[in-house]
């Protein structure tokens, strides 16, 4: 029973990285922009956050540094694809490759560095409840923050005027432009906000979840977060549930190894990525369902005045 509680708690913590990044990418795609550079943004944010944490000793500043790094890279990406109309897919891949190389270069001197003593968090009283307490109420505040972010983003998209405008831009930028909305600026704001969330996920990974810096430590989470948006049919609550599903698969491999299950470690390491492929294949069997839920202008350039 105690082991299951620990597995559930670890699932929530692991899923938080994917949830925050996935929500950021969902915000991008709701505005009609697809950013394949999540992996690179998360890596740069991870080293930015870790370096800030090493030099300042402040987790809050480290997370802010990660958000700033993610937003800055997203702004560069947004400028290229929104104003210069470069191909979104190629530009995103270039950003991902740049982030991997740049973070590896900058992080050389931080590989052996360590952060200060990590704080232990728990909610008094609730943390002592059998099973539920260790699983749900001994988490870092960022875990609960991801849940609140999901609720806030759902409210923003479906209950606020600004969210309605954002979705309109993602569905028909020409119509939004005809009504007088600054489509390009709205898209850039969405891209930067999404980049900031990807940056927050990267910094959380290196500062809170691990906490250490290793080259390539994001290890494909950016791609899984990208797949999550399709898996969730562009709905925030489903992104959160999908993140916990993939987080659970990730933690399951460590649990099985700890139990001494005689399966090659390479096969266990493959589990999260195999699950991602299986889910995408299942979803792709119904293209009509994807087309109905997908923002109509996703990945398409917008030329004002044409």
Automatic annotation (TrEMBL):
GO terms for cellular component: plasma membrane. This is ABC transporter permease. GO terms for molecular function: transmembrane transporter activity. InterPro entries: ABC_transp_permease. The keyword RNA-binding does not apply. Its main location: membrane. The keyword Cell membrane applies. It is a multi-pass membrane protein. CDD domains: TM_PBP1_transp_TpRbsC_like.
């Amino acid at each position: 029973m105690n082991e299951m509680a620990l597995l559930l708690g670890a699932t929530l913590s692991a899923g938080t990285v994917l949830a925050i990044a996935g929500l950021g990418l969902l915000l991008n795609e709701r505005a009609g922009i697809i950013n394949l550079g999540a992996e690179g943004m998360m890596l740069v944010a991870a080293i930015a956050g870790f370096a800030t944490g090493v030099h300042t000793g402040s987790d809050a500043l480290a997370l802010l540094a990660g958000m700033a790094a993610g937003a800055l890279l997203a702004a560069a990406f947004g400028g290229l694809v929104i104003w210069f109309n470069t191909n979104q897919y190629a530009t995103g891949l270039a950003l991902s490759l740049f982030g991997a190389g740049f973070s590896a270069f900058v992080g050389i001197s931080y590989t052996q560095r360590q952060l200060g003593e990590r704080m232990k968090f728990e909610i008094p009283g609730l943390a002592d409840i059998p099973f539920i307490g260790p699983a749900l109420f001994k988490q870092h505040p960022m875990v609960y923050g991801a849940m609140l972010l999901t609720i806030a983003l759902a409210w923003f998209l479906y209950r606020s005027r600004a969210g309605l405008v954002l979705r309109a831009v993602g569905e028909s930028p020409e119509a939004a432009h005809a009504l007088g909305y600054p489509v390009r600026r709205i898209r850039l704001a969405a891209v930067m906000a999404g980049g900031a969330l990807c940056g927050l996920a990267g910094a959380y990974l290196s500062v809170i979840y691990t906490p250490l810096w290793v080259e390539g430590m994001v290890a494909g989470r950016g791609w899984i977060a990208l797949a999550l948006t399709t898996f969730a049919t562009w709905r925030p609550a489903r992104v959160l549930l999908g993140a916990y599903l993939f987080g659970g698969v990730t933690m399951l491999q460590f649990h099985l190894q700890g139990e001494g299950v005689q399966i090659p470690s390479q096969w266990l390491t493959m589990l999260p990525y195999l699950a991602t492929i299986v889910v995408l294949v299942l979803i792709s069997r119904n293209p009509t369902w994807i087309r109905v839920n997908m923002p109509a202008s996703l990945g398409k350039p917008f030329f004002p005045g044409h």
